[in-house]
Amino acid sequence: MSAPREAKDWQGQRLYIAPDNPAGRNLALLLQQQGAIVLGIVDNLKQGPDVCNHASQSKAYDAVLIAPSDFQQKIAEGMLQNGFVAKKIWCCKTLNPFQFEPYKAGSVWQKLKVIIHDCFLSLQDLLPKGHVVYYAEKYVDSNVLVAFDAHQKRHQDVYLVVKDAQRCFHPAQIDKPLQVCWLLQRAKVLVLDHESTDPLFNRIRTQAKVVQLWHGLPFKHLAGNKHFAHILDEAFVSSSSWFNLHVFPKMFKAKHYLDFGYPRNDALLQAPLDRCWHNSLSQEQLQQLRAGKKLIVFMPTYRDNGQNDHPINWPELQQFLVEHNAVFVMKTHPFLAPFDELRQQEGCDRIFHYPGRFNVYPWLADADLLITDYSSVAFDFLLCNKPVLHFMYDIEQYAKVRGQFAIAKEDFIAGRTAETFAQLLEQMALDLETDRFALKRQALQQKFDMVSTSCCPALIAYLEQLKLQP
Fold it and tell me: How far is CA 368 from CA 88, 101, 260, 328, 386, in A?
């Protein structure tokens, strides 16, 4: 067994990096800075001048390194099928510090279990289809959660299945493996808000009518599923007719692009008691936290380069909040903040960290100011008609990793920007006193023809109609 390796071990080595996504591109960039020779990117689904689909297309190489993700094993297995050598495949386990471990192939028994499992699934393919099934992996994001909760209240024959569930997100979720498999096989309509490389899911999506809710109007680049040759979803749902016409068809494949809105945005239009509070911190906790103070919500997006610390001076921010009678709630990307309760910043009784994999939209609806960077939440918050402040302290580095933005910067920003913490405090003070960009927000809503009504009623009616179709 080969010993783990560090970044210095790849200096001067001829490498391929996998896969072709922001995490893979970032790993390639970091290793080049450490002196490695990156020959290209390995990805069996994508095309590009530096993308290699099969070992026959590769130059002589010393190793293929797989970027950190939950799917390294599956990525490696795909590369083996395409001619790459197992002993040259390494998995990056951490970026800070760098640590690489050799790929470990499955045992003969594990391979036999896969064959038996595939045979069992082939028999289940013969089962009649009739259910609407909402699908999630590990955790349930807010679009699927809110839509399922509303759907279940109106119809009984609807299910939320969670593969490899980390915990309970909704009291009606089904997460036992056999039940998950059984219900997926019976799905007539399959609803999700993410993309997946799970073999069972990819098998089912070719048999069911798939409705992709996704999770926001993008400013940043998205890989989508356009490169998946074997799929054509029934529908792709968003909150903008303009994006459905000009942006999403370049990223996602679907027969229809529908502007129902996003289920999570319903909370931004509802009274507190009508919002979906599942997998959210309670309304009572929100009321106790505010207690007459202004609410600032900070929602930064995920950085694929691993630089997810933000240039914030917490004691200085605490003093600002005291002076302006405000509280500050930071909600990071679901990939981060793996705790399940509200956490107070040490020594700062006005600053709180919201759990990353909880739904923050019932709280966001009451915010007086949203701070974000490149996240789609900026578009969602337009429905609240309140100030948005963009903290873009690393936009050049971010663009290098994510690639070209999906739309122009001026079509995304509907408020002030800040590049330093000092600028952030200055702009926050102004936004808490006056609303300076109401006309710009309205202009963006009109340009993108954004939905300003509740999503769930229209979406549920559509799903029920799909279920009745042959």
Answer: 53, 47, 26, 10, 7
